[in-house]
Write a sequence for this structure.
């Protein structure tokens, strides 16, 4: 038996939107099985209560081991709140037996803050990247994390 996780995506091209995922010993969301890339993760509260002002930690927020996933977006309605987790908020590439985690994009999220973005609600670390060709943030309004 593995470590309990919130969502373990085992197929690709999914949209995960509008969930509050908290208090899992493992990760809130894992995208690591073969052929599971191309997912969109938006408008979720990961590691907090539904108000986004209290930590209800997971072990890790999001673990990505596959290519071409979008975490967040350029508008306020697409951003995720990824805060209060015991490990990293987002971990890209450190997944045994997974493929290349290239082409992932992380934009517009609140990471390590409350839902208002005005008070700290830290993860142990924000984003860990052990993979190439990952985009974090952008130059347009709303793309900063």
């Amino acid at each position: 038996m593995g470590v309990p996780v919130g969502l373990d995506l085992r197929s690709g091209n999914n949209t995960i939107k509008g969930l509050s995922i908290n208090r899992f010993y493992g990760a809130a969301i894992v995208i690591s099985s073969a052929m599971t890339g191309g997912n969109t993760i938006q408008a979720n509260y990961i590691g907090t209560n539904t108000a986004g002002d209290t930590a209800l930690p997971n072990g890790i927020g999001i673990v990505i081991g596959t290519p071409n996933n979008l975490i967040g977006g350029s508008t306020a309605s697409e951003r995720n709140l990824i805060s209060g987790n015991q490990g990293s908020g987002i971990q890209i590439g450190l997944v045994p037996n997974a493929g290349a985690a290239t082409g992932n994009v992380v934009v517009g999220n609140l990471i390590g803050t409350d839902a208002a973005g005005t008070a700290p609600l830290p993860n142990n670390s924000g984003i860990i990247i052990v993979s190439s060709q990952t985009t974090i943030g952008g130059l347009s309004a709303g793309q900063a994390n």
Notes: The radius of gyration is 14 Å. Residues 11 and 82 are 23 Å apart (CA to CA).
